[in-house]
Amino acid sequence: MNEENLKHIEQLVREILIEIGEDPDREGLIETPKRVAKSLQEITASTTKEEFTEGKMFPTETTGNDQLVSVNNIPFYSMCEHHMLPFFGTVNVGYLPQNGQIIGLSKIPRLVDYVSKKLNVQENITREVADILMEITDAKGVAVVVDARHMCVEMRGVAKNNSVTRTTYFLGAFNEDTQLRTEFLQTLPKVGF
Ligand SMILES: Nc1nc2c(ncn2[C@@H]2O[C@H](COP(=O)(O)OP(=O)(O)OP(=O)(O)O)[C@@H](O)[C@H]2O)c(=O)[nH]1
Ligand SMILES: [Zn+2]
């Protein structure tokens, strides 16, 4: 998003304020179009793939490391592509390394940021995290579970407060090996939001 985009969004937000019956020149709203433009820029500023693909893999001495690795409770914030309202929650990721190749732990939350900082739906975030992780690690299997609350479900429409949506996506070994899948599912923390 460049300066021209930001200026244009500012004008549009000013028009929205008028259409919803507000006075965009009242004191509390004077800076609002600019703030909204900047916050939209921040919320949708997906990072680049290099943030989690450069220097990502570490070979270890032994394939004895080819055991389940799970990184849970990774927070994310996104906006639904239907209403442009926030949905947020946690991403839980498991993978089964192949040939002792492990990924730097910080790269997984970076991947979650990359996928979630744009207009999206929860199912796509779940699948994209799994597909990209599989692509960059060449793991034997990848599992992703996302728990989220959707403001478009809670504060409007059907208005169901505190309902939590869980989406899951399994690739490779997690589809074939029920024991592995159960082991991963047992690592999932209780939803705390
Ligand atoms: N599957 C899925 N649906 C979502 C997600 N975020 C929002 N939605 C749903 O997208 C749907 C859009 O439905 P529409 O009927 O086109 O829009 P609407 O009239 O605003 O729907 P209501 O929310 O039921 O009032 C709604 O059922 C939302 O709950 C998501 O991440 N995944
Ligand atoms: Zn929505």
UniProtKB/TrEMBL annotation:
Residues that hold Zn(2+) according to the record: C80, H83, C152
GO biological process assignments: one-carbon metabolic process; tetrahydrobiopterin biosynthetic process; tetrahydrofolate biosynthetic process
Family designation: Belongs to the GTP cyclohydrolase I family.
Organism of derivation: Aerococcus suis
EC annotation from Swiss-Prot or TrEMBL: 3.5.4.16
PANTHER family attached to this UniProt entry: GTP CYCLOHYDROLASE 1 (PTHR11109:SF7), GTP CYCLOHYDROLASE I (PTHR11109)
Molecular function, one GO term: GTP binding
Pathway: Cofactor biosynthesis; 7,8-dihydroneopterin triphosphate biosynthesis; 7,8-dihydroneopterin triphosphate from GTP: step 1/1
InterPro entries xrefs: GTP-CH-I_C/QueF, GTP-CH-I_N, GTP_CycHdrlase_I, GTP_CycHdrlase_I_CS, GTP_CycHdrlase_I_dom
Keywords from the named record: GTP-binding, Hydrolase, Metal-binding, Nucleotide-binding, One-carbon metabolism, Zinc
Protein name: GTP cyclohydrolase 1
Residues annotated as domain GTP cyclohydrolase I: 9-187
Domain of life: Bacteria
SUPFAM superfamilies in the cross-refs: Tetrahydrobiopterin biosynthesis enzymes-like
Entry GO terms, CC: cytoplasm
